[in-house]
Amino acid sequence: DASGQKLDTAMYSTYKRLRTWDNRIIHDSPLNRNLLQAFSQLYALKDKLRLSDTIIEQTAYIYRKAEERGLVRGRTISGMVAAAIYIACREIGTPRTLKEIAAISNTKRKNIALCCRLLIGELDLIVPMADPMKCIVKIANKAELSEKITRLAMNMMTEIIKSKISAGKNPMSFAATVLYISSFKAGEKITQLDIANAAGVTEVTIRNRVKELNKMVDSTIH
């Protein structure tokens, strides 16, 4: 680096990729300039979002396809990069919410959502639903909930999946709700605000899901 210290492996790999794109920009190609800027933003978000190399590669692939189809024109690079990250995370099976990506990328959630719909529709992408069990583990870890609550939530989620009432609903919101209800059943109360923040959803969403799930639990939770 500038002070003469040896770069670590991850940073060296990042700069090597950026150097490759920098060399390609010699011909002053607008396409290459766009890709260089997009990939610079992508690698800047890698550590902040704790993204794996597999997710980074898939995101870059989606973004290149969007650029080739002219989908980036007239839209912000940051919005398209964030949308590509969200889709790549869903494809790889690593749950990340739009709210989480929006906050860390400093991009409006609405903008990312619009870009997501565009990419999925125009590139004919098939985006799998997030694994609700992985969502439970992620939220429980973030909210520092006990293993007992997590096990109860997983058992409840199994019943919810069988009932099919979660079809078409946000898996993160249902995961947060079953954790919230399970905390009462385990005698370890947590507020709706705390669980909503950990899941990246709103308190209103949690309340609405609780009303739906009250029919399936032994006692009513308010």
Kindly describe this structure.
The chain has 222 residues and is an all-alpha fold. The protein is 69% helix and 0% strand. The protein has eleven helices and no strands. The protein has helices at residues 9-24, 30-49, 53-68, 77-92, 98-105, 109-122, 132-143, 147-163, 171-185, 192-199, 203-213. α7 (132-143) packs antiparallel against α8. The model has no long low-confidence stretch (mean pLDDT 85).
Number of helices: 11
Q: Give the biggest beta sheet.
A: none
Arithmetic mean pLDDT: 85
How many strand segments? Answer: 0
Determine the N-to-C terminus distance.
Answer: 56 Å
Q: What's the alpha carbon Rg, rounded to whole Å? A: 20 Å
Percentage of residues assigned to helices? 55-70%
Instruction: Report strand %.
Output: under 5%
Shape call:
elongated
Any low-confidence stretches, pLDDT <50, length ≥5?
none
Order of helices and strands: HHHHHHHHHHH
**Alpha-beta classification:** mainly alpha
Provide a compact summary of the structure:
The chain is an all-alpha fold. Helix content is about 70%, strand content about 0%.
Comma- or semicolon-separated keywords:
single chain, elongated, 69% helix, 222 residues
What is the fold's blueprint, element by element?
Blueprint (H helix, E strand, L loop, with lengths): L8 H16 L5 H20 L3 H16 L8 H16 L5 H8 L3 H14 L9 H12 L3 H17 L7 H15 L6 H8 L3 H11 L9
Helix pairs in contact: 1-2, 2-3, 2-4, 3-4, 4-5, 4-6, 7-8, 7-9, 7-10, 8-9, 9-10, 9-11, 10-11
